[in-house]
Design a protein that fits this description.
Blueprint (H helix, E strand, L loop, with lengths): L8 H12 L5 H13 L1 H21 L9 H45 L4 H18 L2
Helix pairs in contact: 1-2, 1-3, 2-3, 2-4, 4-5
Length: about 140
């Protein structure tokens, strides 16, 4: 997967509301979190917006809260977002490897259809493929 591009402060500012509402796309989220982690001004903007959002949520739902540690909440949320991004990248790599092996197996099957003597090689490759998949997804 390609490296996330660097955002400007203006671009990061436009992504604050979608980030808070959990409507931000994974690729944008990666660039956003990278920017927020390295730009104190944008971090402060996000923190302030999150504080206002949480305060309005408390008022709208007519409930009191003792858990208003916005710094802790923001850090945990950024950590969860980064974890989601890493898991998505890992899943994408696994799928790419799986697709590559399926394509290889299809090629070997096609070759076997025209050259039956290659059957033993295909059988060994199939066993290796199953062993690899078992290790990859366990």
């Amino acid at each position: 997967m390609a490296q996330a591009r660097n955002l400007t402060c203006r671009e990061a500012s436009r992504l604050i509301a979608p980030y808070i509402r959990k409507e931000i796309k994974t690729r944008e989220a990666e660039a956003f979190v990278n920017h927020i982690r390295t730009c104190p001004d944008c971090y402060d903007d996000l923190e302030m917006n999150l504080l206002v959002h949480n305060a309005l949520d408390v008022l709208d739902n007519d409930r009191a809260t003792d858990d208003f540690d916005i710094e802790k909440k923001l850090k945990e949320d950024l950590d969860r977002t980064e974890l989601r991004i890493r898991k998505g990248k890992k899943r994408n790599r696994r799928m790419s490897i799986l697709i590559l092996f399926v394509e290889l197996l299809l090629i070997l099957l096609a070759v076997n259809a025209f050259l039956p003597a290659v059957g033993d090689v295909i059988h060994r490759a199939g066993e290796a493929f199953i062993t690899f998949l078992t290790g990859l997804f366990t």
